[in-house]
Amino acid sequence: MSAIKYSIVIPVYNEEEVIHTTYHRLTEVMKSTGEAYELLFVNDGSHDKTADILIQYSQQDSSVMLLDFARNFGHQIAITAGMDYAKGDVVVVIDADLQDPPELILQMIDKWKQGYDVVYAKRTKRKGESYFKKHTAAMFYRLLRSMTDIEIPLDTGDFRLLDRKVCDQMKLLQEKNRFVRGLVSWVGFKQIALEYERDERAAGESKYPLKKMLKLSLDGLTSFSYKPLKLATYTGVALSFIGFVYLIIVLYLKLFTDNTIAGWSSLIVIQLLFSGFTLVILGMIGEYIGRIYDEAKNRPLYIVRKTYKQQPIRKFAHRE
Ligand code: UDP
Ligand code: MG
């Protein structure tokens, strides 16, 4: 058997409606390369028929491998597991819902042949996604950029090609709350963007509800920036300064004038503002401490229930 050249990592969570089409389109594209490839599906604890369908494919097609997680660990962890198990000289991560067109993989491979180590797909348009999702995502990427020191490309998801050496470096980064696209930027090497228009989901619904989007953005921010923590310090200094000026004014009024200040409403406003602010800062510190706690527990990132892969056919049959 020839060594695997291309590994395609596909995280899947309840994708029974689209998985057949995805398998066929990916197979068509990868066959056209004429090289040995593997389709490495990571089933992230689906409750529907996704796993059964993929087990079948893994029995029929020796290019298919399935990692079946013991439960839902999340998209970023599923990608990480795929990278850990991938054997190819090149690893491509792609969503299962065909929002990322498989045909673009060929262009990525061209760039790789020109000597690039990371080819990431940058979205120029996002079709069929809600106004809310598009705009919050765009804002998030810009906020993240303003807060971090490393260059994390704008409007870029996890659809990308990695050279074997980049993938090997990624495996050394064992942090628990992962923002994979940030980690790839952090690793460095020769990176290039490939622009594309993001299609609609071919079937089914988004598996990224608001809660998961928030978790992902907080992981991105906290893993790559301390600035939110510093916000407390800066605001504290500014408020102390204002407080000091106000103190002088109050003292002046008290000592040199007869004005008695009836200030109930202003007191309430100040009280509400500051206690709100204090809670926000405490929450922010909590986000960091929770993540430090995760690191301290040092649990494995994921648990694989079973892997499915056809055994390679032996070259020599047993003698009777
Ligand atoms: N996914 C996953 N685990 C999850 C959520 C999503 O493996 O907990 C997979 C999903 O099957 C898909 C990819 O991650 O292949 C991206 O998810 P989705 O398309 O739902 O996200 P969106 O494009 O809506 O942001
Ligand atoms: Mg999608």
From TrEMBL:
SUPFAM superfamilies (UniProt xref): Nucleotide-diphospho-sugar transferases
Q: What is its EC number?
A: 2.4.-.-
Question: What InterPro entries has UniProt attached to this entry?
Answer: Glyco_trans_2-like, Glycosyltransferase_2, Nucleotide-diphossugar_trans
UniProt GO molecular function: glycosyltransferase activity
Q: Does the keyword Transferase apply?
A: yes
Its localization reads:
Membrane
For this protein, the parts annotated as crossing the membrane are 231-255, 261-289
Domain named Glycosyltransferase 2-like: residues:
7-169
**Enzyme class of the recorded protein, top EC level:** transferase
Organism expressing this protein natively: Priestia flexa
Q: Mainly localized where?
A: membrane
Q: Which Gene3D superfamilies match?
A: Spore Coat Polysaccharide Biosynthesis Protein SpsA, Chain A
List the PANTHER family hit by this protein, alphabetically.
PROPHAGE BACTOPRENOL GLUCOSYL TRANSFERASE HOMOLOG, UNDECAPRENYL-PHOSPHATE 4-DEOXY-4-FORMAMIDO-L-ARABINOSE TRANSFERASE-RELATED
UniProt keyword Disulfide bond, yes or no: no
**Protein name per Swiss-Prot or TrEMBL:** Glycosyltransferase family 2 protein
Topology relative to the lipid bilayer, per the entry, is:
Multi-pass membrane protein
Q: What is an example of a Pfam family matching this protein?
A: Glycos_transf_2
Give the UniProt keywords, A-Z: Glycosyltransferase, Membrane, Transferase, Transmembrane, Transmembrane helix
